[in-house]
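Holo model, alpha-D-galactopyranuronic acid. Inputs:
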Amino acid sequence: MRKITNINSGWDFIKDGVAEKVDLPHTWNAVDGQGGADEYYRGRCVYERTIPYFDGRVYLEFCGANTVCEVFVNGIYIGSHENGYSMFRFEITDFIKADEENTLRVIVDNTANEFLYPEMADFTFYGGIYRDVNIISEVAQSHFALLDMSLCGMYITPKADGRVFVKSLIEGSCMGLTKEFVITDAEGNEVAKREVEADKDAVKLFIEEPVLWDATANPYLYTMTARLKKDGEIIDEISDRFGVREFYFDSVKGFFLNGKNVKMKGVSRHQDRWQMGNALTLKEHAEDIELIKEVGANSIRLAHYQHDEKFYDLCDEAGFLVWAEIPVISNFSKKKQAQAKFMLEELIRQNYNHPSIYCWSVANEIGINGAASGLAAGIKELNDIAHALDSTRPTVTAQVTMTSINSKLNEIPDILGYNHYYGWYMQTVEGIDKWLDKFREAKPHLKLSLSEYGAEGMTNLHSANPVQGDYTEEYQAYYHEHYIKAINERDWLWGSYVWNMFDFGSAIRNEGGVKGRNNKGLVTFDRKIKKDAFFVYKAYWSDEKFVHIAGERFVDRPTGEQKIKVYSNCDKVTLTVNGEKTELEGDKIFEFDAVIKEGENVITAKSGKCTHKITVNGTDIPNPDYVLPDGCESFVRNWFSSSDEINPDNLSLNDNLGDILFNSEVQRLAKNHAKITIDKDMPILKPIAKIPLKPISKLATKLGAGEAISMANQFLQTIEKDK
Ligand code: ADA
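Output:
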């Protein structure tokens, strides 16, 4: 019978020839990958340890190592793996010796690689063996598959009527063997059983009146145990949990789970933490789950790659609806297509049994740099693979603002997401309402979600008059107040995902006064502070009654008549400012008029048993620490639009005016949308056609029109140059 031994402890880690002792999970970028350093270490490092002899067939199991991993046992090359986010195994039976210590040498490399995703993205690619490593030993000659990319060797497909289909594969001979399948309910009672010949791949069982996995309302889980038997004796055993549920998407009413209309109230999550990088344990995963429960979300987008198996398990248990994805992101490249297919297959095979997962996302913002060669065909190929591997879940992609509503990319997946940052990178928050309505009118058949939206919020920056781009906690909260209303007003929009639940490491960033971090989280990177925006969502989503006065950290504030905001899911809130009481009836966002006096002011919000008290200091001298320090980049940086990332095959502001005006696609757009015909031979156009746009754009950026220029450039990048 197989036995699992964890070998996380006692590794020698060698970087640049220097060795140290480490335990797994480990990353060498825990510090330099998330702030301070100009560059983070990207290269080849070595992990070594010895292992004793193990009986039976023996397998090494890595739950995650980023990015390329090569494995050697006693100096012999065993194999390599090229996906930084999935589980992989190698059989080492013939390479370990009984009479001596066996050396394990693992080379991990996170150098940028043109054949591998992710190559360009807004998060740190932490290197290391950052998840568990196990040895599976004493495996029988014939056993449930360990090398078919799956986690446990069986794929369970439950139906709401109680039928449960299970597919399993045996590695080794099936001669004279049988397979027994037993389903137990959450209380451990046996509810179905079946025994068949071992070579029968697909088996059907039946649960009488199954209890449905009903998301957060009742995340009910069954367990399937499969036993391989020889002459009635068990020689191998595996088990996995599953949930019985049915769902579909409707273009008018959104998402239906077990017959009920459910709006996905979602947040996105990256898998890293302050000073830990991606090397997390169950404790950190569980803490994240608790925070997501507290905000009242019912759905999580696990961006932008496969997360730790443990996290999907926690989602099954908590009842979150999970969007799972692969890091096919930012720049499509045919060179990376083979790896993209491999990553998708691993994602689906390893996570097939999770009831929490409702879709497979095959790409994120892949149209961002315009129409790369082979893009649509490449995405279509991934979409087809997902369908072939799993006919029970829809495919999805997350598009980005500059991908046209009419893009053929939008017609590929079964359901769709769009990432928009109106009110942060571009235009104002109202832009989201306009875009959603325009989309709805143009494409009523498409099933849309808002797969990302967000704004940076620094817990040390504050303003009584927040404005876009000031990085204050107050602007971030204002931004989300607008978006949640826009989302709730539109029933056809099946869901939305705040970008992001937590601040996360992004080594390429330097803004808002900090290096190496994306600060769009509702909660800080160390999970210690819930920003005001967190409570906006808690008010709209959670049933747990609370009151929260915004601006707890905005201590030094102007005196005189001021607005005080309270976020709450109670109907009535009483605010007391220096003993002066006001009661307001309202809905989620309560705005009180108050007078702030010079010096200490005690402010208390109360509703029933809920209270929140803050103390602020009235002063007419603005606190200089509340604005970005001199020399910090205050211009909102759209990380994807720096000039060195310009696709030369498409138009950009590096071109001359004439190149743009006479481009056939521009002419078509001008004719269809603006009813303007651009005639090359018009005398007025002759002299201006040669004007280069680069110096004009530079000047306009200096004069403060950088965002408009950046948007214009992004738009031009979606148009191919004439051949
Ligand atoms: C993109 C991208 C994210 C992200 C975000 C941002 O839209 O999909 O990875 O980090 O931008 O914050 O700019």
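The first strand starts at residue 3 and ends at 6. The mean pLDDT is 94.
Archived with the compound record.
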